[in-house]
Amino acid sequence: xxxxxxxxxxxxxxxxxxxxxxxxxxxxxxxxxxxxxxxxxxxxxxxxxxxxxxxxxxxxxxxxxxxxxxxxxxxxxxxxxxxxxxxxxxxxxxxxxxxxxxxxxxxxxxxxxxxxxxxxxxxxxxxxxxxxxxxxxxxxxxxxxxxxxxxxxxxxxxxxxxxxxxxxxxxxxxxxxxxxxxxxxxxxxxxxxxxxxxxxxxxxxxxxxxxxxxxxxxxxxxxxxxxxxxxxxxxxxxxxxxxxxxxxxxxxxxxxxxxxxxxxxxxxxxxxxxxxxxxxxxxxxxxxxxxxxxxxxxxxxxx
Length: 303
What we know:
about 300 residues, mainly alpha, 2-methylcitrate dehydratase PrpD, globular
């Protein structure tokens, strides 16, 4: 039914329906399942997301000890009344981190679009829920809207850190979330696309450099920043701000950038933060001998 964002927006405008509805209709056509079956499956995903956030906000720790507990710290900070960024924004950030801390602790999460970027969409959803008071149906639609934009990215670029860096994982998740926030807040399909474009533009070039090759550092905190990026871009789009570069062209740029990234910056744990002295020390503490020495880091930094 649609291959890119322009076609997605056009269909929603022509049929005078939400982007979520376009995605539901496409799923019916492609899968052969009934509307009720498709919505029930997404409802199950929503439940998994909710439980992951609840578990993360109760406090979890990964086996390595690299991550865990930061979502709780941020919730406590919000309650202190000293927060500078605003409670809604920080709530989204905290819930995004909670989800990824559960992932790092080998808990059950819903990949949106990947496990490493699983916090952004649910984190923002369950934060704006307190502001917009959506029905369960509207929360499910939020996920279908995110899915529609994720579908376009996956088919025209990449959602894989190994293929396109963290811009393809957390960047995509943040764009998906921004579009969904806009639609839930009553924005138009075009505004949803603008939010996606604004978000992804600001995450272009983000590398994938997991310390010790684990989806912990810096992944959890990147989900936090992805959530804040999505919230800000959604507000910009709802205010009437547009992206000078069309959404589909931003996606194409992301793909091109990913293709030009060296393999050391695409999930291999060989470059970036993973190759810093501290990154290598942590790797050695977890697995034994590090993959590279300080000299390797200095050479790569100077080259």
